[in-house]
Amino acid sequence: MSSELRYTANTQLEHLHARYTGTGHADLTKYEWLTHQHRDTLASIVGHPTLNSYLAIAENESIGRIKFEMTERMLQPCGPPPPKDED
Amino acid sequence: MSEETPRLVDSFTAPKEVLQEFAELAEEEDVDPFAETASKRQIAARQSDYHNKRFNRVANESGDAFKDGDDSGYKEAMRLQMLEKEEQRVKRLIEDKEKQDKEEGKENMDLDRTPPRAEIQAAAQELAAAAGSRRKRRWDVGDEDEKMEDIKTDSKEWSDQALESSAPKKRRSRWDATPADVSAGPGETPKRSRWDQTPAAQPDAPPIPIIMNAPGIMSEDKHNRYLTDEELDAILPSQGYSIVTPPPGYAPLVAPRSLTATPISTSLGGFEIKESSDAAAVAAAAGLAPELPTEIPGVGNLAFFKPEDAQYFAKILKEEDETELSVDEMKERKIMRLLLKIKNGTPPVRKTALRQITDKAREFGAGPLFDKILPLLMERTLEDQERHLLVKVIDRVLYKLDDLVRPYVHKILVVIEPLLIDEDYYARVEGREIISNLSKAAGLAHMISTMRPDIDHADEYVRNTTARAFSVVASALGIPSLLPFLKAVCRSKKSWQARHTGIRIVQQIAIMMGCAVLPHLRNLVDCVAHGLQDEQQKVRTMTALALAALAEAAAPYGIESFDNVLKPLWLGIRLHRGKGLAAFLKAIGFIIPLMDPEYASYYTKEVTVILIREFQTSDEEMKKIVLKVVKQCAATEGVTPHYIKQDILPDFFKAFWVRRMALDRRNYKQVVETTVELAQKAGVSEIVGRVVNDLKDEAEPYRKMVMETITKVIASLGASDIDERLEVRLVDGIIYSFQEQTTEDQVMLDGFGTVVNALGIRVKPYLTQIVSTILWRLNNKSAKVRQQAADLTTRLAIVIKQCGEDQLLSKLGLVLFEQLGEEYPDTLGSIIAAEGAIANVVGMTQMNPPVKDLLPRMTPILRNRHEKVQEASINLIGRIADRGAEMVPAREWMRICFELLDLLKAHKKAIRRAAVNSFGYIAKSLGPQDVLQVLLTNLRVQERQSRVCSTVAIAIVAETCGPFTCIPAILNEYRTAELNVRTGCLKALSFVFEYVGPQSAYYVDSVVTMLEDALTDRDLVHRQTASTIVKHLALGVAGLGCEDSMLHLMNLVWPNCFETSPHVIGAVMDAIESMRVTLGPGVLLSYVMQGLFHPARKVREVYWRIYNSLYLGAADALVPFYPDVGELSEGQNVYDRYALQVFI
């Protein structure tokens, strides 16, 4: 593989990365990154039945309710986006 | 050489004729030897007359149907098209009349004599009358025109013309209309054909029409330009002639010297005048300037520049004062420069120019752009590459211009449509792409109104290309949107051409869209169905072809959509003959496979009568179609074997299994294919029994055809159906035809091999005879025959062994062994392969000649450079090393090892792989030390390929003999000061760890120090290869408890993440990713977190890249490792992950 080809292969890979939600870039803000982290956390809880039942026991709720709440919370898990700077 | 000089012995010279020849050669020196190939590259030069009809097309501006106040487009186009038809009709009438006159003996067209004036005028007037107001004269000098009109009206001959001139607006000949009138009359059309071009381009004049028949004007060169006065003086005798002074009042339109353009076809009778006055450019255009510029002001260096380019780009070839130019002129020059860069520039130049022209497309506007691009595409000397680039420009520009292209749709179509019937696949694809983009940009309504006039164009070429273009439009905008229009066109009452084209559009849609027609199948079939009963033969034929295409596209679904056409089709085959019948049969052939079995059987029986009748046909096309239909019918489920045997086979064999069929390649293939298909139903013995006697036919091509059929039938169906008597005849025939062949053919060889292998043990009684044939042919004088005999041995070896004829095998083995001195490499390769095949089946211990004799004989052959020999010998040696290494002394193996090193340089990958594998086998039997030493020493050689292969071989030795045998040696070798050796050692280690996988856990600690050294080396490649080792190591030891040393290596790899060289960064990233597997994503996250919000963007970019690949690899596993950043919360944004803080 010529160096150029390899290079383009890499850039293509980066295009691919950009298509996945949750991947970041050099200009990502704190808010955006943390929002992704929160969503991943919530998704992870919904996806692991053991975590789900753990939380259900701790909060004294039904498993379905926990699932529902976690899913609901994925919408703006860290609150609305902060106002952009003027500059 | 004069007579009196004494002749010295040592001063002889070449014979006179030779010197003469050289002198002549020197004179001819400026003959370009590449001229011929250059013309081959030109598209126009290699295309057929039919393709080149594109140069005759005339494009008109298509009015924008969506623009207010300009509704003339469609109406006008239709009117023009009617006129053109009328003109053709009249021309044909005139031609017919002339022909008739000639036949009657009234020889009017005497070439020596000018035809009577009256006659020409009559014809001209008839033409002019037909052409009507569309034609405008091209001489646009107003006052002259009036003068001429005066003359005409005065003279009595022009009396009828004079009558017309009293009502000039209604009917005017193209000779007497001034362009001024054109722009003046509001009722007049804004359309301009090539007839009414203004020779001088005033900047404020309306846009110059694009000349679609450009070659007439553009293709002049030094061979057909006008003669100059000097040249005429030189040609004509000076005595007896006098130069006539021009009549008073004659003013030449232009000085003859500045004439650049001369139409080829003198029938047009007029001049095209270039606006340029620049002498250099004009000279270049006329082919007078031998030096063509490759450096052009404002453009820079070009890859090439053709004489033809000069006339298109004349304006930018000279230096100009840019301040004097108007904005439009500047724009034009800018476009020309960009186009020239794109067409003739080097790749980087071309790339930037293409981007610029795309970005500025809307700024330039559609008009100026296409006025420049389209004539270039119609240039006769255009080459593939140039066409590709120009088409690309159109494509890019189209995107940007969007609906601005509307006025140019027809012009673009005229240029692009020919691509759809180009013989080059990629040209066709490009054409489709453009038309599809065009239709998306212009919209369906506009496309239809633009192309509608061409649907019943008088010229078949135009209709053909238009149909194809329409099918592209259909695929771009969806079939449903085009259906109403198609329905209307297919039912057109006005002309059969329209119906023909409409049906052809459906056919093209089916061909292009394939199974995507299924949802609309019924509609499409209904569209064309009535065409089967059309009164025009051509329409009926085309309908049948369209149905065939639809059925082929829909297969195996959609039979219910064809319900309506079944009856007319099956009735039609009884009514038609010739071409029509062929088309109907073709449609039937494609529809039958869609049917349910019982229907298929019924309809097949209906059609068989006709098919059998047409077996006798002498028409080649019909023959092909009949064969195809028979094949399709035979393949359907409902047709019973009994029926085929009873009704089809007798006539089929009588008509097609004749010697004549073997002579034409296409017939040959068709017959073989059809017969094989019939055999699927009728059985092997039925077919083979019929043809087997022809294996002894006296015509060789026919024997070949028989052999190929038998081969294919037996290969697909086996030989169990063949009874004893047939078996005898078959084997006898095969041996006969094999012996009698005059040209050694793959077909005979394959046939022999297939039949014998299929018969298996049943062939035993004939083996003695077969082997003696082979033995005899192995000693033949011709190398080809010997080669073929050896190849046959290769194929038969297994069967001979199955039959238990070891005697014969050892005899063959011995004879082949004696033949190893063969001098023809192809034959030698076959002989070695045959020897290898025998060794394979008998085994190394029973092999005769014994392996210990065979191998030393092979050692010198390994030096043979021929690929086939190399491959065959390496395979044989590898096999011996694998199975019978202990039978050969170690010294011999070492010798072979050294020879094998050379094979590592082979071009063919299979040879290198076989060689590398052989090292493994040899090392296994000899012990690794010696082989390893050979390979490590080989790391010092120059050729990279040889070194790389050695490293692979080392790794294979390590794999077969255990890593502990090799790793110490490699580490020791790594201490050598030579760079190549060290890199080779690293490479070898990387392969070793790749191959041994989890076993590497035992060796991690021993290589860590070496890796420390390599990863901290100055040399980039060192670090790269070391990273690769780390990658394989990390993946190998994942989960095996080597985290401590891995973390250590990770610390050494990590700083390399800032490398920029693509190979290095690739290897480093890979190593880091595999660390994720070994160390877990949490560890990596803590590394990455240090730089994600680094103040330097360069750092952030790299770290985010690593983070992304980490995230994609283990998003879920990262959740527990994200830092707790609750203290960063501010205002509405709370960053605590409360769900993780819960505990019971």
From TrEMBL, chain A:
Stated family: Belongs to the SF3B5 family.
Matches recorded under Pfam families: SF3b10
Name of the protein this chain belongs to: Splicing factor subunit
PANTHER family in UniProt: SPLICING FACTOR 3B SUBUNIT 5 (PTHR20978)
Gene Ontology BP terms: mRNA splicing, via spliceosome
Domain of life assignment: Eukaryota
A cellular component annotation (GO) from this entry: precatalytic spliceosome
Protein's organism: Heliocybe sulcata
From TrEMBL, chain B:
Listed PROSITE patterns: HEAT_REPEAT
GO biological process: spliceosomal complex assembly
Keywords from the UniProt entry: mRNA processing, mRNA splicing, Nucleus, Repeat, Spliceosome
Region (Disordered): 85-208
Feature: compositional bias, Basic and acidic residues: 85-116, 149-159
GO MF annotation: an example: mRNA binding
Keyword Chaperone attributed: no
Name this polypeptide is given: Small nuclear ribonucleo protein
